[in-house]
Amino acid sequence: MMQDQGQPIGKFKLAARIALLTAMFLVLLSGAGDRIAAQDSPHIHVIVNMVQLNVAVTDKNGNYVTGLRPEAFSITEDGIPEKLATFAEGNGPTRALFDFAQGDRTGKGSESGDMPSPSESAGTPITLDPIAGANVFILFDTSNYMYRGFVFAQDAIADFVRSLDTADKIALYSYSRDLSRVAKLTPDRGDVLRAVRTTVAGDEAALYNTLLLTLRDASQYKGRKVVVVFSNGPDNSSVVPPEDVAELAQSAGISVYMISTQQARLEPVSTAVFERMTAATGGKAYFAKNWKDEKRAFASIRDDLAHLYSLSYYPRANPNRGWRSITVRLAGDEYKKYHVRTRTGYRLAPTRFASDTSSAESRPETAPPAQP
Q1: pTM more than 0.90
Q2: What is the per-residue pLDDT for 350?
Q3: Interhelix angle for 207-218 vs 242-252, to 10°?
Q4: What is the pLDDT of residues 151-163, one digit of tens each?
Q5: Domain 134-305 in CATH: superfamily?
Q6: Coil, strand or helix: which one is 140?
Q7: Cβ pair 112, 314 in contact under 8 A
């Protein structure tokens, strides 16, 4: 009996020794022998990939300035000069800009870890995407504010959809108290136009709640992203503050355009919020008196999308783990008379809790998961 009882104990000890030796071997193999002490003091790792900017350049009369080259742009982040990684104008193809002849892999000192692969032809721009364009998310107010002029608003949105460049992809969302994803992101104009006609006016307006969800969806996509909001009045049922919504748009690199009627204009708070949010993200705010103004506003947004410069860079080493300010200027005295419009910055987001030397997967700047 004693022998029978001792046999399982011996097997247990043997299995434990094997497990211990296996664990030690794996630790030595991975070179992580000195990581064990670090696990007692975990902290947040922040991973930053490419920062993308939508940049509009206009003259004193508001006309778009075209034909600028990459060297015309100067970017600083918290005062630190940055070097362009990619460049595109309008709906043209995106080019990668690397200067390997000088031994500089664009983004040296970046916290993102992974650098772009060098071109076989050093110093030569590389075509990354033969089909350019923007991912355009239209957020349509179908609250009870929209009972008057609802059909005219649908017509304005439909005309806007038809007028967009064929390279652009479009999604249609509508909102009242809740968000409705009426048409998913697609290049098919027919799908979106049919979805426009299915929208109906309904409940109270929760603009900031639904705009936040729209931004979270848009942030999952690569490339140029914009949200175009058509609102007929102020927000009267959201629980999310507009400041949080604006910060998410800035951090995700999404330009927000807002077209509102005079109904919102009558409320000074809504007017100020709309103007601040769009300016901070590099978009514009419009206040339409009638359906003709609505169509003109949509036409202005279409022109803006067609003339935006798309710039990106890998941030250089920066100890700031909070809000980072971005400044884009034009280099050269001949450009001083021009106006530059883009987002004003972004906030770093933690990817996960980890030890000092633990590896972390790269993430977009602050892209949160899409809502179901």
Answers
A1: no
A2: 55
A3: 10
A4: 888 999 999 999 9
A5: von Willebrand factor, type A domain (3.40.50.410)
A6: strand
A7: yes
